[in-house]
Structure formats: C-alpha cells, structure tokens
Design goal:
Helices cover 30% and strands 17% of the residues. It is α+β, with helices and mostly antiparallel strands. The protein folds into 2 domains: 268 residues, DD-peptidase/beta-lactamase superfamily (Beta-lactamase), CATH 3.40.710; 125 residues, DD-peptidase/beta-lactamase superfamily (Beta-lactamase), CATH 3.40.710.10.
C-alpha cells in the first residue's frame, strides 16, 4: 500500500529542519555498519509529517529499504493480541479477573519456584490463581527462555523454547508445557517479561472459536486495511522482506546465522501462532494500527474498541501504581524503566522526569526484538514508528534517541 507524507511539517507543529535530524542521526548508524537500514515515520493529528528510509533491507543484495518493505515485528505483535483479547472482553466473553484455567485447564493448580536448580527445582503451591489481567500486565509469573536469570528460564530452554515456540508443538501444546513448569512468583506480585501474551493468544482462540490468525485477519487486519500483516509472508512479496541481522560483539550488523532457515520459514504458517512475537508487517499497516489506538479504538469509520476501553488499557495497572524499575525482575530492553508503568499490553509513561527522556504523561508504547519500536502520545496527538531488523533490541539506544529527536522538532 502507498505511504507518503501527508502534511507540511510546519502545519503539524514541527520544524522541518529539526525533523531532519532524525535522518542525519540514524544515517550514521548505517554508515558505521551498526544497522543495515531503517524506516522512520512521524505523524501528528492523524497525518504523516515525516517519512524517511535509509540503508538496505538486504545488504548483500544491495536492496534498499523502501516504504513498502516487510519487517519481522516480533513483540510489536503483543499490542495486537492485547487489542484482540479486549475486543472479546467487550463482548462479555470473560472478566479480567477470570482464572486462565477457565480457558486453558492445564493452568489450574500452578506451582511457584522456591529454590534449587533447573535439574532439581523446589516448588510450592501458588498463592493466587493466574488471571487474565495478570497475562495482560506481565505479572503472571511466567518467563522467557532468553532471560538467563533464573533456573526456570533454563527449564524453558530445556523444553525447546529458547528461540520462541517449541518446534514440535502447536499453541495449545506450548501453553500446556508452560503450565507444567513452575512460576517465578505468585501472580500479581512482580513483573517479568514473558510468554504471557502467547497464552493470551490461546485464550483468543478458545473464546472466539477461531484460530489466532483467522481472528486477527477477520476482526483486525481486514477492517483496518492492514493487508501486509500476518504470521507468514506471501511468496509474491518475497522481494519486499527485509533480511534479519544480529549484532556482533562490536555492535556491527551481521546476517543472522540462521538467515536461510528464517527466510524459508517466513513463507509458511508456523505450527504455533505466536501472539507474543509472530507477525510480519509494513510501515503502512502498523501506522494504521497506531492511528486506531490514537483515535481510541476507531479509524475511518471502523471501530474495534470503545474509547473507554483504550483509555483503560493505556493506564498503569501495576500493583500500587509502581513503575517497572521497582517491580520488574531483571532487564528486558535498552530503555530505562523509572517513571514507566505497564497497562494492558503497553508500557505507559507516568513520570517523564523520572524516565529521563522527553515524553508526555500517558504516552504508551512497545517494541520488538529486532529493534523495531512505536509509541503513541495522546497529549501531543502524535504517533512514531521505527522499523529495522537488528537483534537484539538492546544493542543500541535507538528508542531513547528517537524520543530526543522527535520531541526537539516540535515547536508549536
């Protein structure tokens, strides 16, 4: 789909010269070999004021990033799943306080890690049922194999989840396997980035009677005109797909060692549909998604969520109003967590001063493993999108620097 600048920056409250600092700054990343290429989009008042690309979607082939390039958005899938679950909530399919085991029986009678090693873990009964709101807020006690912080993380790796979903299991099977392993903590008592949103994806399937890809396609993507987004890439669009890169010890971008396998897998629907990280998308499509969120659930006459639901999702839901620095276990991204809470599927800025980055109270956001990022700032009527393909996202301080460069360009 066509994507182009829709408004003169000055009309949208930007200084065009200052906006160009985004391009000048991130061009240096490409010239230094730190990123293969990127796309940046800034919109205000519903219109694109800045759109730029630089570098390559495939360095070896000399193929540049274009506005229609397809990217692996990894954890930027999570807000889509969160929207899906809240659409079902609005239809009365469940209450946020309902136990997860009502939809996935294996999540009954959970146990919590209390000591020992991965080979001989000690556990105790969980003091609280895992509930749907725990999944939405990442306070469920689940984890990711890649954290390398706790023996439970090792249990996930030993069960085949180190690189995402286990190869031989479908989504239902993955959920049953996660339920068989101990939690890191009692649900609701701490925050840990985890497979929780994948479990939400399974609840979408059970509650709706549709597979996750069908629900996304018929209830979100087609209504919003997101024709480039899905769990697999059409073979006819193979030349649009960006190559995935990883950072070497010096922070330079190198092709992913499993690029051939990843490239081939991109065209096949995976056995386990990951609501936590499985989507491919384009700037056009994710921009449509962020505009729907900015407009509190509606875009071009299509309403996915009620305005009060979006407002509720984008408040800090962490216990006691705590921020992530206080409640999170370990590190999970390149951005600071002070002043930042977590809502139902999004990080939420409560205190920009504590966060030490120019932003607005109420800004909500998330990013992906390959250094992609977005945020929505209702106070400034602003959305920002940055797409690239470098793992891991913690390699460079892209998100904090992007904040500096966008907000310094606002002059109204």
């Amino acid at each position: 789909m066509a994507l182009e600048i829709e408004v003169d920056p000055a009309e949208a409250g930007f200084d065009a010269t200052r906006l160009n600092r985004i391009d000048q700054h991130f061009a240096k990343y490409v010239e230094a070999g730190k990123l293969p290429g990127w796309l940046a989009l800034v919109s205000r008042q519903g219109k694109i004021a800045h759109l730029s690309t630089h570098g390559m979607r495939d360095v070896a082939a000399g193929a540049p990033v274009r506005t229609d390039t397809l990217f692996r958005i990894y954890s930027m899938t999570k807000p889509v799943t969160s929207v899906a679950i809240m659409m079902l909530h609005e239809e009365g399919a469940f209450e946020l306080t309902d136990p997860v085991s009502d939809f996935i029986p294996s999540f009954a009678d959970l146990r919590v890690y209390s000591g020992g090693t991965a080979r001989a873990p000690q556990t105790r009964p969980a003091g609280e049922d895992m509930r749907i709101w725990h999944l939405l807020t990442h306070t469920a006690g689940l984890t990711y194999a890649f954290h390398y912080l706790n023996p439970v993380d090792e249990l996930y790796r030993r069960a085949g989840f180190e690189y995402g979903m286990a190869d031989d299991l479908d989504l239902a099977g993955c959920c049953d396997e996660w339920a068989s392993m101990p939690l890191l903590f009692d649900p609701g008592t701490a925050w840990n980035y985890s497979v929780a949103t994948d479990v939400l994806g399974r609840i979408v399937e059970v509650a709706s009677g549709q597979t996750l890809d069908e629900f996304f396609r018929t209830r979100i993507f087609e209504p919003l005109g997101m024709t480039d987004t899905g769990f697999a890439v059409d073979r006819a669009d193979a030349d649009r797909l960006a190559t995935l890169y990883v950072a070497d010890p010096q922070g330079k971008a190198r092709p992913h060692p499993k690029q051939a396998e990843l490239g081939a897998a991109a065209f096949e629907l995976p056995k386990a549909l990951s609501g936590g990280g499985g989507l491919f998308s384009s700037a056009h499509d994710y921009h449509r998604f962020t505009q729907m969120l900015l407009r509190e659930g509606e875009l071009d006459g299509v309403r996915l969520l009620g305005s009060r639901t979006v407002q509720y999702m984008t408040r800090n839901h962490l216990p006691g109003g705590a921020d992530l620095e206080t409640l999170a276990l370990g590190a999970f991204s390149e951005v600071a967590n002070a002043g930042k809470g977590f809502g139902l599927g999004f990080a939420v800025i409560d205190d920009p001063m504590a966060a030490k980055v120019i932003s607005s109270p109420g800004e909500f956001s998330w990013g992906g493993l390959a250094s992609t990022a977005f945020w929505v700032d209702p106070a400034e009527d602003l959305t920002v999108l940055f797409l690239t393909q470098l793992m891991p996202s913690s390699t460079h301080p892209i998100r904090s620097q992007l904040h500096q460069l966008v907000y310094q360009a606002l002059v109204d």
